[in-house]
Specification:
By secondary structure, the protein is of the alpha/beta class. It is built from three helices and four strands.
Amino acid sequence: MSALVIIPTYNERENAEAIIRAVFALPEPFHVLIVDDGSPDGTAQIVRDLKSSEFGERLHLLERKGKLGLGTAYIAGFRWGLERGYAFFF
């Protein structure tokens, strides 16, 4: 299946791991893309750590410079997914 869950983040250090684990606990083999808007709280590092330690090729991180907004985060995520051949987006 080529389904991608797009999760925009900004300062979600306290929630990032829980939401990633919740998606991966679902019965469908979703991939997850975290679109982080330069969170100063270390959100991106948590995602990198989970990718390297547990979730490998199913977890992806797109880091953007600065807080660019929710709408543009989803657009960037859709573009990222389309460029990589994903067919379904959530």
